[in-house]
Design goal:
mainly beta, five-stranded antiparallel β-sheet
């Protein structure tokens, strides 16, 4: 997964599509937690941190990668 990838939210599909803004984000400040990604969603349902929601990488599905262009 890379910055610019188009993704869908697996557990909450009502968010619609999103664009990956940042990768390798520390999740919730806890050591041992998997790294996450920051995503700007088409239909955000809560307050977004710095313009995007932090998600675990396995919670998003890459629809189209910037590597394909």
């Amino acid at each position: 997964m890379k910055v610019g990838d188009l993704v869908r939210n697996i557990p909450d599909p009502e968010h619609g599509y999103g664009i990956v803004l940042e990768v390798d984000v520390e999740t919730w400040g806890h050591r041992g937690e998997p790294m996450g990604v920051r995503v700007a969603w088409q239909n955000p349902t809560h307050h977004a941190d710095r313009g995007g929601s932090i998600m675990y990488a396995d919670e998003v599905y890459v629809v189209n990668s910037v590597d394909n262009f």
